[in-house]
Design goal:
Largest sheet: 8 strands, mixed
Structural class: alpha/beta
Bound molecules: (2R)-2,3-dihydroxypropyl phosphate, manganese (II) ion
Protein name: LTA synthase family protein
CATH architecture of the largest domain: 3-Layer(aba) Sandwich
Membrane topology: Multi-pass membrane protein
Strand order of the largest sheet: 7-6-10-1-11-12-4-13
Organism: Bacillus salacetis
Radius of gyration: 27 Å
Shape: globular
CATH superfamily of the largest domain: Alkaline Phosphatase, subunit A
Subcellular location: Cell membrane
Number of strands: 18
CATH class of the largest domain: Alpha Beta
Family: Belongs to the LTA synthase family.
Helix content: 40-55%
Number of helices: 22
Length: 616
């Protein structure tokens, strides 16, 4: 009898097994929330809120198995386990590089975020295996299951479901009380995940993804009015530089992953960017320009420069909205008899460029198929920059003039791989290998640009051209920033982190002296700056950029997650800091926060409603 009793104690009911699994996942999720992501704890209530946030949704997710037949129950149980773990680990890997969470559209552009290539492997760690430790425990639990106990009483089901539901409601309700903009400003994904947990977040994101396509079907001309109203008050001063590059060819060089900290920096007395440093002496160098891209990376930078609109909060606008009407830079220039083209050594389909370039009005897209790409002249994502520029100049020579061309480099891309014969500077010597390699690929890119300028001179294309060189977005994500701080000797503070989001912007007009301009600005401001130099006054005001020569510095440079930077303050991860002292100054950011919300909403309305079709 005693023997039978102990056997009984060891047996577990199906409900117990589900509860143990949910608790294990809950603990894992809490670990990842606190240690895997960089969600800033601003007040003491953040801690219990974050701890509780995953529980309700996990309970409900696993509860589904109770309502199916005996055959389907284990299948659903394992599906739930896989879904929860895939979301958690997928988020963790994505966050490690992008400091952001996976969104529904990202799943449709999986290849563009590195797929399962070397970039992803670089982000994994052997310690990650610990996250799957419950995979050993669950089969052991299942062996202890009693058949009899497989039937879960209705009363138990009600208790189980009510607990899950109440926890979800408490989590969401508490989140809304603390931040009324939780859902209307859901592009602040760090804030959203912190408040409602990763699983509720994914459910919300999924629902949002399902309803947003309705935006353009239901939109009318009247929806465009608020944007027009808001933007008509945008200041439009002129300077004596207006029209200084009128009628010239325009060459834009998108410098892959190039951050501003490399400019005028040395590794053991060797400059990382010797050519760009020299070029700056003879150019307009905008030294406080911020990366404003989001999940669309390079394509987002292209989008901002061409349209003056903000990128989308989730996914790439190139992938999602290639059928919209855009009043783009190429279209404006085409009306002035420019021939417009893009040169890029990667596949035409990457970032859906092929389709989007049609929408943006480009006459021609020279892509991988137009280049001689071999094993020897390729590295990482494709053709090496030196070969790319060399072959590009030959094509450029044949273009009708004046032309507007964007050239997109590729070699300086994460994880920054380069054969030793191409390494023209020795690796840096920080704790972070990614940063050590980064300086070599940036140095290589600099050499490639130098050769391009020489070729342009040789072909007689240099004098009559205006060159716009810009870093497309950060290369060193927050995860590896420690190495940059080691290199620059700066302290790892939130304000210095914001400073690292600066990308170089150099506008070189042969024959025009130029100077350093240290006004704050962003990539969205590049378009009006080019138009100013070209002497083009656009009638179309539905663009959020401001000419960098006259930009009012009190206007915030707005990032896609609702954060921003002004001359005096920066709002980052939900906290307002003084730029000068780094001290927290909550009330100083309130008005700017409103401006950020307003501009992002108006821009989103234009894109989701395809509103520019009504203004043509
Ligand atoms: C690939 C290039 C790099 O075509 O645009 O992509 P990224 O990951 O930087 O957006
Ligand atoms: Mn890029």
């Amino acid at each position: 009898m005693r023997m039978k009793q102990s056997e009984h104690v060891q047996k577990l009911s199906a409900l117990n097994i589900v509860i143990i699994t949910v608790v294990a996942l809950w603990i894992k999720t809490a670990f990842v929330l606190f240690l895997g992501f960089d969600l800033r704890i601003v007040s003491a209530v953040d801690i219990p809120a974050m701890l509780i946030s995953p529980a309700g949704s996990l309970i409900l997710l696993f509860g589904f198995c109770f309502y199916f037949t005996k055959t389907f129950k284990p299948v659903l149980f394992w599906i739930s386990w896989i879904v929860a773990n895939a979301l958690l680990y997928g988020d963790l890997l994505y966050y490690r590089f992008y400091t952001d969470f996976v969104t529904l559209p990202i799943l449709f552009q999986f290849d563009n975020v590195g797929g399962l290539g070397p970039s992803t492997l670089e982000l994994m760690s052997p310690w990650d295996l610990l996250l799957f430790i419950d995979l050993l425990i669950i089969p052991w639990l299942l062996r202890k299951k009693t058949d009899k106990a497989a039937v879960i009483q209705s009363r138990q089901k009600v208790w189980y479901a009510s607990t899950g539901l109440i926890l979800v409601l408490v989590t969401v309700g508490f989140g809304l009380i603390r931040s009324p903009y939780l859902f209307s400003a859901s592009y602040d994904r760090d804030g959203l995940v912190k408040a409602i947990g990763p699983y509720n977040y994914h459910l919300y994101d999924f629902a949002l993804g399902a309803v947003t396509p309705l935006g353009s079907t239901l939109a009318t001309k009247a929806d465009a009015q608020p944007s027009e109203e808001y933007l008509k008050n945008k200041e439009t001063e002129s300077t004596d530089l207006f029209g200084v590059a009128e009628g010239r060819n325009v060459v834009l060089i998108s410098m892959e992953s190039t951050q501003d900290f490399v400019i005028n920096r040395k590794i053991d007395d060797e400059e990382i960017t010797p050519f760009l440093n020299d070029l700056i002496d003879d150019s307009f160098y905008f030294s406080n320009i911020y990366d404003q891209t989001a999940q669309g990376k390079t394509s987002d930078s292209e989008f901002m420069i061409d349209t003056g609109l903000y990128p989308l909060a989730s996914g790439s606008v190139f992938v999602q909205k290639p059928d919209n009407t855009y009043v783009s830079l190429p279209n404006i220039l085409k009306k002035r008899d420019y021939y417009t083209s893009v040169f890029h050594g990667n596949e035409r389909t990457f970032w859906n460029r092929e389709d989007m370039y049609d929408a943006l009005g480009y006459d021609k897209f020279f892509s991988e198929r137009d280049y001689i790409v071999t094993e020897e002249n390729s590295v990482n994502y494709g053709i090496k920059d030196v070969d790319f520029f060399e072959q590009t100049v030959e094509k450029m020579e044949e273009l009708p003039q004046p032309f507007f061309s964007r050239l997109i480099t590729l070699t300086n891309h994460f994880p920054f791989l380069l054969e030793s014969e191409d390494q023209l500077i020795k690796q840096a010597d920080t704790k972070i290998d990614v940063v050590n390699r980064y300086v070599t690929t940036v140095r290589y890119q600099d050499e490639a640009i130098k050769q391009f300028f020489n070729d342009m001179k040789e072909k007689g294309l240099y004098e009559n051209t205006i060159f716009v060189l810009y870093g497309d977005h950060y290369g060193i994500s927050e995860k590896f920033e420690e190495g940059v701080f080691e290199l620059t000797g700066k302290e790892a503070t939130p304000v210095n982190h914001v400073g690292l989001q600066q990308v170089p912007l150099i506008i070189h007009i042969p024959g025009v002296k130029g100077k350093e301009i240290n006004k704050n600005g962003g990539e969205i401001d590049i378009r009006p700056t080019i138009l100013h130099l070209m002497g083009i006054q656009t009638d179309n005001k539905v663009s959020f950029g401001r000419d960098l020569f006259t930009r009012n510095e009190d206007h915030p440079v707005i990032f896609r997650d609702g954060s921003f930077v002004t001359k005096e303050f920066t709002f980052n991860d939900g906290v307002c800091y003084s730029m000068e002292t780094g001290e927290i100054s909550t009330s100083s950011c309130v008005t700017y926060q409103e401006t950020a919300r307003k501009e992002l909403k108006l821009s989103d309305d234009i894109i989701y409603g395809d509103l520019l079709r009504f203004l043509e």
